[in-house]
Amino acid sequence: MNKLWKWTSIVGGVFLALSFSVLLVYSATKPIVYTEDLEDEELEEEVQIGKLLEFTPTEETEIYLEFLPDTRLENIQISEDMSRNELFVDILDVKSLERVLATLEGNETLLAHAAWQKNEVGIRITLFLRDFYAYTYRWEENKLYLGLEKPRDKYTYIVAVNAAHGGSNTGNEVNGVKEKNVTLAVAKEVRKLLQEETVGVFLVRKDDSNLSAHKRAAYVMNLKPDLVLDLHCNVNGENERQFGTEIYYNEEYYWPDFTNAQFADQMERVLVEHIQGKANGIFPDTERKYPMIHLLEVPTISVELGYLTNKQEGKLLEQQSYYELLAQGLQLGTKEILENMDSKAQ
């Protein structure tokens, strides 16, 4: 019995020692992922965002970066990822932050943390904001001012437009016409037409980038829009004579007095009338082909703008003039829907 106990103790001790060694190796090699509840000490070890960058707290509603005299605005690029509430300032063709940046100031109610790291183009400064902000910027005497404002404080209505696909995910492609290009071109035209003093229009995809459905959904939910337009192009390899628009919706989600089916129905009527096209109908997305309308808890529709496989419509879908026509129809439909929502709210 004593021998059995002895061997059991030895085997158990070896197992615990090996487990502890594995845990140490795993802990030493596992990268730390940034989350809002990390302490500053943990952030300094973050390999993805680089090193923490100290900033001077202010009472201003702008973030202020003062650069050294030789820095030029043409060497600075500003971008954002508001699915994570992050604002980026890329300084091109530099290897050391000390050679370009003098000071960074920001209001702590707007700016949680700042960090910097080297990347393939130079230096990237990441500003970790406390909320989703629309930003503006101005450049004065080597000083970059970033103005931040919550969209809901600026606009009465907010509309998000998602251009499907992007990057290596071209979507449907027929005779060189790629769905990702059509959807982005139409989305940009919608923003140009619909954006006004009381209506803010935000593009979920702004360039030829491939964003996951969950990243797009995170952006939209941070934005908190009133409506979401999800743009696509259709194909039918078995019937190339098929043409026209279709609109899909999530029948399981609705606002009081306003369902996604009503949203789809109003949009189809106005859009088809404006482009003088063919309405193939509105449909609940029972097959879950359109992830955005199932991931979002705001009124959302997926609009199939036309069939790339139809000879005539396929040619239209590669013309800028037709992008503008489609955008006009989407703009008119959106404005009518917003007005209807406003009248019901009253």
What does this structure look like?
The chain starts with a helix and ends with a helix. It folds into two domains: 40-149, Immunoglobulin-like; 153-345, Zn-dependent exopeptidases (Aminopeptidase). It is elongated and about 60 Å long. With 346 residues, the chain is α/β, with parallel strands linked by helices. 33% of the residues lie in helices and 31% in strands. α4 packs across α9 and α6 (260-275) crosses α9 (320-345). The chain contains nine helices and 20 strands. The longest helix has 28 residues, at 2-29. The strands form five sheets. The protein has a six-stranded mixed beta sheet, with helices on both faces. It has a five-stranded antiparallel beta sheet with strand order 1-7-8-5-4, with no helix packed on it. It has helices at residues 2-29, 40-43, 151-154, 179-194, 213-223, 260-275, 292-295, 311-316, 320-345, and strands at residues 51-52, 56-57, 62-67, 76-81, 86-92, 101-106, 111-118, 122-129, 134-140, 143-149, 157-163, 173-174, 177-178, 199-203, 227-234, 245-249, 254-255, 258-259, 279-284, 300-307.
Outline the biggest β-sheet: 6 strands, mixed
SSE pattern, N- to C-terminal = HHEEEEEEEEEEHEEEHEHEEEEHEHEHH
Question: Which radius of gyration do the C-alpha atoms yield?
Answer: 26 Å
The CATH topology of the largest domain, please? Answer: Aminopeptidase
Instruction: State the distance separating the first and last CA atoms.
Output: 84 Å
Could you list the spans in which at least 5 consecutive residues all have pLDDT below 50? 1-47
Number of helices: 9
CATH class of the largest domain: Alpha Beta
Name the structural class: alpha/beta
CATH superfamily of the largest domain: Zn-dependent exopeptidases
- The tally of structural domains comes to 2
Mean pLDDT: 86
Order of adjacent strands in the largest pleated sheet: 14-11-15-20-16-19
Share of residues in strands: 25-35%
